[in-house]
Amino acid sequence: MNMRKTILSLSIATLLSACAFTPDNTLPTVEIPAVATQADAVAIENWWSQFNDPILNQLIEYALINNQNLALATAKVDEARAVLGIVSSDQLPKLGLGADAGTQKFSKEGGTAPGSTVSDYKLVGQASWEIDLWGRIRNLSTAAKQDLLATEFNREGVKLTLTAEVAQNYFNLRALDAQLIITDETIKSRQEAYDLREKRFKGGITSELDVRQAQAELAAAQAKKPDLEISIAKTEGALSVLVGQSPRALVESGVSRGLTIDQLTTPPVIPAGLDSSLLLRRPDIAQAEAGLLAARARIQSARAAYFPRLSLTGLLGLESLDFSRLFQGSAQTWAFAGNLTMPLFDGGLTASQIDQAKARDRQAAAIYQQAIQNAFVDTRNVLVANKVINDRVAAEQTQVTSTQRQLKLATLRYDNGFASYLEVLDAQRNLFSSQLQLVSAQRDLLDARVSLYKALGGGWSKN
Predict the structure, then answer these.
(1) CA distance readout (Å), 226 to 103, 186, 223, 232, 330
(2) What kind and span of H or E run contains 63?
(3) Domain boundaries in the chain?
(4) What NCBIfam families would the database entry show (predicted)?
(5) pLDDT digits over 111-132, tens only?
(6) Is the pLDDT score of 171 beyond 70?
(7) Residue 346 has pLDDT above 90, yes or no
């Protein structure tokens, strides 16, 4: 008869659980441009390998192993996974084993066995289970699952940002190295020009004005070098932190270099006609979506507080006043109970908790929509930059070629007495500036490719 009652109670609980609150998983509608795919594309996990620099590949490999921001993000994933385990455990019965032994002497003036001594020994197994009638625990578990997904997507976002920063800092370092070489060569050529002008001045062939102008140009180039050396040191430090290099290793061996800035392979630009839905694979959008779904589940969990909570408890074990008889069949004991609680008045606590959950849902929805908006703006900007950056590099290269010719012609005119030394100085300045700008343009071209891969949530290439 007791077994029938138990089965009946569980059946009723199961039927009631069908009435549990289910969160709305419909995502906010965001209008995105429907762009037809003009070329097939496939994801490239190690997109940085397209630059064909073994040292860059090695630095990124070190970063993925040793970077502390990535280690922090991974620890947060582990924490979220543990939280999910804690919350999910409430969906299952709790089992425990307990033992109790005690002796009590009653007062002679007491009403129960006056003056006697009584011992009691127990060994029992205990079980308890909250029947999740309205989905309170289930929705909390769903929210915890989404929180775990959000932390995993956050880790992917940290990884994507990390690899992009390593690549861009490396390109910047190689650009600074190239500019330092150009500056050293310029200092050398201007030193030779200054020495020649000084000899001519001492020989009475030229004026002191030419000497001082040559000296000023030499000093200008020399003044550029310390700034470049400081920038190189700062970039090496930033790159060292990104890859997790120890301070000792940085001081003793510095940061490894590979190809020069003009030797690095420039990957082909990704076509601008890719399907807009590809952007939804970005880690930040996926993270925002998971956060929104978690907030939706917590609303339903909070609503369940308005309704009754049913808990079942059971006990099965042994009890005896004589320890020697504890394990006999006659010492068996059991108990079964159900507990139903329902709030009647809580001073508006439940209503406020629901309002709080709804407010957080609106926040999560705003974050989700903003993530999509930022993704499209970001991608549009880098697509435009990638489209025009090649033209800039070509223009800078043309300028370098032209200024090299200009300097040669100006020098010939000056040596033959057809022009002043100012023409030579102007040509020198233009050449030095255009050479530095060309290196900057080459770096920006590589950076633009990295920014595009990052904007799309990872590397892409044509099939």
Answers:
(1) 87, 14, 6, 10, 94
(2) helix 54-66
(3) 2-93+133-307+355-462
(4) outer_NodT
(5) 666 767 777 778 788 888 888 7
(6) yes
(7) no
Give pTM, 2 decimals: 0.82
For residue range 280-325, list pLDDT tens digits in order.
Answer: 778 999 999 999 999 999 888 888 888 888 888 888 877 777 777 7
User: What pLDDT is recorded for position 408?
Assistant: 93
Listed in order, strand segments (DSSP E) in 136-292 are none
Q: How far apart are CA 2 and CA 314, in angstroms?
A: 13
Assign 46 to helix, strand or coil.
coil
Looking up tokens 């320890």 gives 323
Strands (E), 8-147: 41-44, 94-105, 117-131
pLDDT of amino acid 406: 93
Encoded tokens for 238:
């930033």
Residue 183 has which token pair?
Answer: 């500056």
Task: Decide if 277 contacts 454 (C-beta within 8 A).
Answer: no
Q: Which CATH code fits 2-93+133-307+355-462?
A: 1.20.1600.10
Cα dihedral sign, 14-16-17-18:
positive
Rounded CA separation 461/463 (Å): 6
What count of Cα atoms within 13 Å lies in the side-chain half-sphere of residue 218? 17
Using only the alpha carbons of the chain, give its radius of gyration: 38
452 Cβ neighbours under 8 A, 6+ residues apart: 269, 270, 379, 382, 383, 386
Residues β-bridged to residue 95? 127
Burial 12-51 (b: 16+ CB within 10 A, else e): ebeebeeebbebeeeeeeeeeeeeeeeeebeeeeebbbbb
Cα 151 to Cα 22, 71, 107, 142, 157: the distances in Å are 23, 12, 63, 14, 10
First to last CA, the chain: 70
DSSP H or E stretch at residue 460: strand 459-462
Judge whether residue 204 has pLDDT over 80. yes
pLDDT in tens, 214-260: 899 999 999 999 999 999 999 999 999 999 888 888 777 788 899 99
Judging by DSSP bridges, how do beta strands 41-44 and 459-462 pair with one another? antiparallel
